[in-house]
Structures are given as structure tokens and as C-alpha cells.
Specification:
Blueprint lengths: L1 H39 L1 H5 L1 E2 L14 E9 L2 E8 L8 E6 L3 E2 L1 H4 L4 H4 L3 E6 L13 H16 L7 E6 L2 H11 L4 E5 L5 H8 L5 H4 L6 H5 L6 E6 L7 H5 L10 E5 L11 H12 L1
Parallel strand pairs: 1-5, 4-6, 4-7, 7-8, 8-9, 9-10
Antiparallel strand pairs: 2-3, 3-6
Helix pairs in contact: 5-6
Length: 283
């Protein structure tokens, strides 16, 4: 009887071990599948462009001009310039948008600048809107510099505001770190791209897996122009705590504006933001 009891306990223990190993194998398989998908499909996970037929005209009600600049044999940069009357023109805002859709989605923000007599030049990234070409981090930096050089043909640096929203904040910060401007404005910025991905996939070595770095923290150290940062405390896409990590890299004269209860896409509903924008363009 004792022997049978021992055998029963051993059998139960063996069963429990097999069950434990079975679940462990399932967890490992899921971990590997998700990790492989994250690595190979990261472009589709991080970026959500919407392409537009190049022959399809934009139907913006605001005065605007569209430019298509051949960049290489296989790529074209599409730019929309939202205009103000020449007699009232004070400068230009170079606007680098977020990771989704195209210029038509962000055009609604142009009046916040044109009402202050600043033109707004919005650029679409490769594969976004009417822009074509291969998408890469370096390509985005190169195209940003091309947009800046185009602006410099008309405007002096003290008439150029560089503006980045969401993903575009890393691009804007990089441009402002190598070229002079009147002001750098960052709306819902991030420390760097891997730190954002880590927020969603904390169990993976994302620093080694993600091709895109966009180290905003690094570029801010070389920006000599005034910097203004806007970030909402209820932002769940780029958490407020992530943006706060940029504070040590700002100059004493720079401004980090915390917008209580604001989320990722509603900052312009808050007077604190719009009043500061007006102030930057009137200074």
C-alpha cells in the first residue's frame, strides 16, 4: 500500500511537470512568434501611411500651393504650402507630421499658424500621400534638410519655425540640431523610438530589434534655438513620462508645457497651447 501511494504521488508529480513544461513551451512559442513579427513587420506596426494618386488634386479650402520635387530617379517629395498674403507674410513653419495618413489629415492645423501670418509647409514622407521612394530614417532626415534649403531660398533663419508632431518631433529636432531657426516646437515628443516601442513590448530587447532610433534626446543637446515642448498628461500613445525624460536635455531658457488632461491629438483644444503658439509667432 505504501508503494502504491508513492507511485501515485510520483505519477501526479510527473503529470504536473509535463503540464508545466507544456505551458512553458506555449509561452516560448508565443514569445518567439511575436518577437519575429515585431522585427520583420515593424514598418507596418510603427507607420500607417495612406497613399494618394499623384494626379488627384487636394481640395483644401485654405489658399495653398502644391509642389512635387523629384528627389531621385525613384522618389518624389510632395509638399503643400499653405499661404498667407504676401503683404502680411512674417515667416514659414516647416511642419513634420506624425506616423499616419498624409498631409490631408494634418492640414486642419495650418490655420493656427497662417492666422499669425506664417506660411505652413507640410511635407509627406516616402510612401505617404503623393510622396514616393524608399522609407528610412536617414531618408527622412535628408528630405527634411531639402525642405529647409527650399525655405532658405526665400526666408532667413530667424523667420523659420521648425515644428514636429508626434513621430515628426524626432525629425524636427534633428533638423534644428544642424540648421539655425527662429524656434523649435515639439508637440507630443518622445525620448527615442525604441523607448516608445518598449512601452508596448517591455519583454523584448527593442533597442536591438527596432531599426528606427530617432533619438530626440540626443539632437536636443545641439539645438541652439529656443525650444517649446507641449505634452498632455493623458497621452496614451506617447506617455507623458516618456516625454518628461527630455527635460534634462533642454536649455534653461526652453519651455516644457504640461497640458493637464490632454491626450495625443487634442492639444489645440487647450488655450494654454494656442496662446503659447501665438506668443512664439509674435515675439
Amino acid at each position: 500500500m505504501v508503494i502504491n501511494g508513492i507511485r501515485g504521488k510520483n505519477s501526479k508529480k510527473t503529470f504536473e511537470m509535463k503540464k508545466w513544461w507544456r505551458w512553458l513551451r506555449i509561452v516560448i512559442i508565443i514569445y518567439c512568434v511575436v518577437g519575429i513579427a515585431l522585427y520583420y513587420l515593424q514598418d507596418h506596426i510603427l507607420f500607417h501611411p495612406v497613399q494618394i494618386n499623384p494626379k488627384q488634386p487636394y481640395e483644401f479650402t485654405a489658399p495653398h500651393k502644391e509642389l512635387n520635387i523629384p528627389y531621385s530617379a525613384s522618389s518624389t517629395i510632395n509638399i503643400v504650402q499653405f499661404l498667407v498674403p504676401d503683404s502680411l507674410e512674417k515667416g514659414v513653419v516647416l511642419y513634420f507630421h506624425g506616423n499616419k495618413k498624409n498631409i490631408s489629415w494634418y492640414a486642419k492645423f495650418s490655420p493656427y499658424f497662417t492666422k499669425n501670418n506664417y506660411e505652413v509647409w507640410m511635407i509627406d514622407y516616402p510612401g505617404f500621400g503623393k510622396s514616393t521612394g524608399l522609407f528610412s530614417e536617414q531618408q527622412l532626415y535628408d528630405w527634411a534638410l531639402t525642405l529647409y534649403k527650399l525655405a532658405r531660398a526665400t526666408y532667413s533663419p530667424d523667420s523659420i519655425i521648425i515644428y514636429g508632431k508626434s513621430m515628426g518631433t524626432g525629425i524636427a529636432a534633428q533638423l534644428a540640431s544642424i540648421r539655425d531657426c527662429r524656434h523649435l516646437i515639439l508637440e507630443t515628443p518622445y525620448y527615442d523610438m525604441p523607448s516608445i516601442v518598449d512601452n508596448y513590448f517591455p519583454v523584448y530587447p527593442v533597442n536591438k530589434m527596432i531599426h528606427y532610433k530617432f533619438p530626440t534626446w540626443k539632437y536636443l543637446q545641439n539645438v541652439t534655438a529656443p525650444v517649446t515642448v507641449f505634452h498632455g498628461t493623458s497621452d496614451w500613445i506617447i506617455p507623458y513620462r516618456n516625454a518628461k525624460r527630455l527635460k534634462p536635455f533642454l536649455k534653461l531658457t526652453d519651455t516644457f508645457i504640461t497640458v493637464d488632461d490632454a491626450s495625443h491629438n487634442d492639444l489645440y483644444k487647450f488655450p494654454l497651447v494656442t496662446k503659447k503658439l501665438d506668443s512664439v509667432m509674435h515675439d
